[in-house]
Amino acid sequence: MSATGSPGPHHLVATRPAAAKAIRARQGFFSRFRMMGAVGLKMMFHSKLKLIGTLLGVVFAVVLSNQQAGTFLGLIYKNVMFVRNTDCDLWIMPRSTEVVGPGKLSTSALSQALVTKGVADAAPILIGGANVLLPNGGFQQVTLVGTKYPNYRGGPWNIVAGDRGALARPDTLIFEDSERELLGGLNLGSVREVNGRRVVVGGFTWGLIPFGPSYAFADFEVARELLKTPQDEVAFILVKLKPGADAAAVKDELSRNLPDAKVFDRKDFEASVLKFILTKTAIGITFGTSTVFGLIVGFVIVSLSMFSAVVDNIREFGTLKAIGVTNLDLSMLLFVQSVAYALLGSLVGLSLVAQMAKGIRSAKLALNTPPQLTLGTVVVMIIMCVFASSLALLRLRKVEPAMVFR
Amino acid sequence: MNAATLLPQAERVIEVRNVTKTYGSGATAFQALKGVDFPVNAGEFVMLSGPSGSGKTTLLSILGCVLTATSGHVQLMGEDISKAKEGDLPRLRRSYIGFVFQAHNLIASLTAQENVGLLLEMRGSSQSKARAEAGRLLDDVGLGDKLMSKPGDLSGGQRQRVAIARALAGSPPIILADEPTAALDAQNGLKVTETLRALAKEHGHTVVVVTHDNRIFHLADRIVHIEDGLIQEHP
Questions:
Q1: Do the beta carbons of residue A136 and residue A128 sit within 8 Å?
Q2: Amino acid B234: pLDDT
Q3: Is the Cβ–Cβ distance between A388 and A299 less than 8 Å?
Q4: Domain B12-233 class?
Q5: Same structural domain for residues A107 and A204?
Q6: Residue A11 lies in a domain
Q7: Do A295 and A234 fall within a single domain?
Q8: Residues A122 and A61 in one domain
Q9: Strand, helix or coil at A108?
Q10: What is the pLDDT of residues A213-240, one digit of tens each?
Q11: Residue B234: φ, ψ to 5°
Q12: Do A48 and A154 belong to one domain?
């Protein structure tokens, strides 16, 4: 076509309709969403440093919030594990009791429980602090649980050495395996003095460490003597229902007949423990603050990174607007980028958390990261990233397409 | 009277009458256009020239629907765009205009084919058709072997040819080019201008080029000189 032999559109229109016609066609919403999403992802992966910077923000938020939330759930579990692992349907306890711990409940409640319709069995337990005399002369405290032969509804569980039947032997206790060194190098058959009385080690559990000292288990009568509890007092009564019995009806009946006590099923008691921890200890506020702090820092990093990415590419966004892209289209682009950042960041962050959980898992502390927490994290990250992109969107809305001519 | 104004109204693609544009207000107000008339007919290849600050880019921006006039009338293909609302402008740009920018303004993260295909999809093509058509357009401008190249891997002349292919995507009736040769050497500048002229002469697009480059003036049907916000057309 040209004298210079330049490539020219010799056959440009030969295969297309006449040029001088307005173009009225327009993509549908979903096609635009797919197209702008694809452009957004390509822009996102084009700038590797920005990608890494933004992902670091999400990963930071995921790791910090998950580590805090996982530790918090782990601590919560340690305080409700006793409730979850006892072999009973209902708990009877003094009205003032909120958590698993010492209590003074009259043994008349036990008699009342045993004659209540629908009750198959009721067994008392005792709980109290006890001091173990160490070979070097010092003391180490344990939380002593007295549990009743033959069903031992109050534990022990997670036994890693010996067996529960050892409690039937005279003056025999089962201790926490991870505290063996702390308790002066305990072994099966070791002899120690607990609250001034000689006892024999008959077994070990693993991981039974609540907020306070680790649990140690003894037969109910042995525990009564060690804790010097009066004959007419118990801490809790654990009620096992007959098959097919209506738990709510039995609970109501017991509550009516025991005005000085309260009756909880497992769910109620767990809720009570959780409420106590959240409202009457600093644990909830401490971990909650750290979790929120992690989310805020992540939000700020993601927000600034996305804003900075928009500023860096402002001319490209101006060009997109000049060629007919609308603000809604650009919102779609940022939305897809936000979700992609959230998903990628969550994937990396949750992998790190899983490695951390493996690394720090111990009898004393275990990150509890249930699937709900994992799913919740992804959802929260998506919400966080979408909100974080709003600053970038505000900037994009102000981009004048006329800038492309300057 | 010039040739364009003698043509029948039906062939008029661009009609600009008594357009003014004022930036700012009060004491700091600056009038960039002071009552401009600028008719362009179908298939014309018009160059707008003038010194910096003369108002030529403002006029191009108004024609390109990226800026609205302060007063006067602007029609594209018979549609009055003078009173168009902000929200209507993207539709008008998609309907009528193909842009060729001074600095090509390609999306750096997209390949040449994707840059062109983006416009085709925006103008209603399916993804697969857009991809195929973008390939054909790039082949037409001599870049059939650069479909998967990103702008960073192309020379200045090649990028500008991708930009021309993008401007042609969907075959809009009006092509507006802002200093398309400014970043190119003489030979590439001439090639790009010849390509733009071919769009007008052989294929019926109406092409308006803003340029300072007097080496390409000889290719224009008309050279419209604008100075101090007023048109001074050369015969």
A1: no
A2: 56
A3: yes
A4: alpha beta
A5: yes
A6: no
A7: no
A8: no
A9: helix
A10: 999 999 999 999 999 999 999 999 999 9
A11: -90, 145
A12: no
With beta carbons under 8 A apart, name residues in chain B contacting A406.
Answer: 57
The interface residues of chain A toward chain B in range 297-316, judged by CB-CB distance below 8 A, are 315-316
Kindly write down the DSSP assignment for every residue of A219-242, as one continuous string: EHHHHHHHHT--TTEESEEEEEEP
Co-location of A253 and A317 in the same domain: no
More confident of the two residues A360 and A169: A169
Q: Is the pLDDT of residue B10 over 80?
A: no
Among the three residues A259, A294, A317, which one is the final residue of a domain in this structure?
A259
What are the helix (H) ranges across A181-282?
220-227, 247-257, 266-280
Question: What is the rounded average pLDDT of the residues A23-42?
Answer: 88
One domain, residues A58 and A101: no
Tell me the pLDDT band of B4, cut-offs 50, 70 and 90. very low
Q: Do the chains contact at A19 and B170, CB–CB below 8 Å?
A: no
**Residues of A in Cβ contact (< 8 Å) with B57:** 405-406
Residue A267 counted as domain residue: no
B79 and A CB contact within 8 Å: yes
Q: Is the pLDDT of residue A162 over 70?
A: yes
Q: Tell me what percent of chain A is helix, strand and coil, each rounded to the nearest 5.
A: 50, 15, 30
Whole-angstrom distance, CA of residue B138 vs CA of residue B156: 15
Judged by a CB distance cut-off of 8 A, whether residue B171 touches chain A is: yes
Number of domains in chain A: 2
Asked if residues A9 and B194 have their Cβ atoms less than 8 Å apart, the reply is no
**A4 contact residues in B (CB cutoff 8 A):** 187, 190-191, 194
Return the amino acid letter for A20: A
Q: Tell me, what's the pLDDT at B218?
A: 93
Quick check: B101 contacting A, CB < 8 Å? yes
- List the single best residue of B62, B188, B203 to mutate versus A (max A Cβ within 10 A): B203
The alpha-helical segments, DSSP class H, found in B82-202 are: 89-96, 112-122, 127-140, 156-168, 186-201
Give B117-161 pLDDT, tens digit per residue.
Answer: 999 999 889 999 999 999 999 998 889 999 999 999 999 889 989
Tell me whether residues B118 and A39 touch, CB distance under 8 A. Answer: yes
Are A68 and A366 within 8 A, CB to CB? Answer: no
CB contact under 8 A, A42 and B110: yes
Question: Tokens for A9?
Answer: 């559109």
In a domain, A22, yes or no: no
Question: Which among A259, A274, A296 is the end of a domain?
Answer: A259
At A256, list the tokens: 């009516």
The boundaries of the domain holding residue A175 are 96-259
Q: Does A21 fall in a domain?
A: no
Residues A129, A234 within the same domain: yes
